[in-house]
Amino acid sequence: MAMACVPDEFRLFVVRADWRDSNLYPRDTLHDPSIWAWEFLRRNNGYARDYDYWNDRVCEDVPAIPLPKMLLDGYYCDPEAIPGMRYDEYKKAYPIHVVLSVQDYLRERWGVIRLVDPSLSAAEVEKRFPGDDPRNRLSWIFASTTPQVISPAPGFSAKSYLFHKHLSLPVSGYCTGTEVMVRLDITGNFDVQMDSLRRKIGGLFEGGDRGGETLSGSREQFLQILEHSVGSSVDADQREALEAFLAVNSNWNSTSARYDTLQSTARMVDLIGSLEAGTLKGELEAKWGDKFPPISVSGLDFSLNPYLSPSPAHYLQEHLRIRVPLRKALHKYFTFHHLSGGKSVIKLINRCLDNAYQFAGGGHAQVARMSPPKRTKKKR
User: Fold this and answer.
1) What does the alpha-carbon distance between residue 162 and residue 159 come to, in Å, rounded to a whole number?
2) Tens of pLDDT, residue by residue, the chain (380 residues)
3) How many CB atoms lie within 10 A of CB 329?
4) Is-contact 26 267, C-beta < 8 A?
5) How many whole angstroms separate alpha carbon 97 and alpha carbon 104?
6) If DSSP codes are grouped into helix, strand and coil, which group holds residue 78?
7) What pTM was computed for the model?
C-alpha cells in the first residue's frame, strides 16, 4: 500500500535531490560552512514558501521606519495592511502593530541578508553571485557571517555624503535579539577599532568575552519578566525549558555536526522530505543500480498519518512517533548502502536524523558559524 503524503503546507522539508545518490550533493570533504548552511536552508519548506510570497515584494531602498505619508509596499505588517494604505492611516487603524521592511523581517525570521531562490543549488548560486571569500563562498547570504553596512537615509547620494565632512544625517535600522548597531569612522585605525569592538562585544557576555554562555544578566531579566507575567516563581525544569526562548542561549556557539557528516545529514533531510511526500517506502525498496539488491521494509510502519487533526503540532508528533521504525528501516538500508561519516551505522543514522531536523528546521545558522579552513599563505 502506498504511503500517504502530508499536505504541502504542513511539510517540514522540500526534496532537492535524490537522497540515495551522494553524487548529487556537495562532497563530504568540503569545509565551506556557508555552502552547507545554504543547502540546509533551501530545503526548509517555510523558507521556500516565504520566497514565493515575498520575493517580488522586497524593496532594498525603503527606510527601516516608514515615513508617515509612505505607502506600505515593501513592508511586512502585522496586522496586514490594506493595499494602498499609508503608514499614518495604518497607525490610526492599528495602534498596536508591527511594521518591518521585508528585508528586516526576513533577516529576523531566517537570518539572511538577501532572499535567494531555494531552487538553486549552492553551486548554481555561486555561479550567479560569486562571493569574495574563497573559504566561505556564500557567506554574503547570512547575517551571522556578513556584517551589514547601514548608510544614511535612502535618496541621499553616498558620494555626496562622503564629500561633506560636517554633514550629519539620521540613520535608522532594526536589530534582532542577537544584533547590535555599530557606528564606525571609516577613516579610523581599523585594527584598533576592531580590537575595541571585540572587547565591547565580549563585555556583553557572562565572563566578559564571547566564550560566555549567554548575555550577561539575560537569564535573570527573562525570568523576572516570566515570574511577573505568571505570578509565581519558575522552577529548575521550567528554567531549562525556557532557555530556548533566549536570543542567546547556552549552546549558541556549539554544533553537534562535523564536516564529514554534513553530506549524510543533507541526504537525511531529503529522505525525510520523501517520507512527507509519501515516496520513501518505494525508494527504500527499489533496486538501486547493479551493486545493491532491493530490500523489503514491509514489516515496518513508518508512515505519517495525514488524516488526524491536521496541524503543525500534529505532524511534529507524527515525526516523533515513527522515529524508531524509520531508524530500523534506514539501518537495514544502509547496511547494504554506504553512508559516509562514521563507522557505527546506527549511531550515525541517529545523529544525522537529529541534525537534519535541527539544521534544515531553522538551525542553519549553527552551520554557517562553523569555522572555515585557515587561509593559506601565498608562497613568495
Assistant:
1) 5
2) 456 788 888 899 999 999 999 999 999 899 999 999 999 999 999 999 999 999 999 987 788 899 999 999 999 999 999 999 999 999 999 999 999 999 999 999 999 999 999 999 999 999 999 988 999 999 999 999 999 888 765 555 555 555 556 667 777 888 888 899 999 888 899 999 999 999 998 888 777 766 656 666 666 666 776 666 666 676 777 666 666 666 666 667 777 778 999 999 999 999 999 999 989 988 888 876 665 566 777 777 777 776 665 677 788 888 888 898 899 889 888 877 666 555 578 888 999 999 999 999 999 999 999 988 877 665 55
3) 24
4) no
5) 15
6) strand
7) 0.86
C-alpha cell recorded at residue 51 = 520566497
Domain spans in the chain, listed from the N-terminal domain onward: 22-33+236-369
Alpha-carbon distance values, 42 to 16, 51, 124, 364 (Å):
8, 10, 12, 10
Helix/strand/coil for 82: coil
Q: Report CA-CA distances (Å) from 266 to 41, 228, 273.
A: 10, 43, 11
Q: Which contiguous run of DSSP H or E holds residue 301?
A: none
CA–CA separation, 48 vs 117, rounded Å?
8
Longest dimension (CA), the chain: 77
Rounded Cα gap, residues 307 and 221, in angstroms: 43
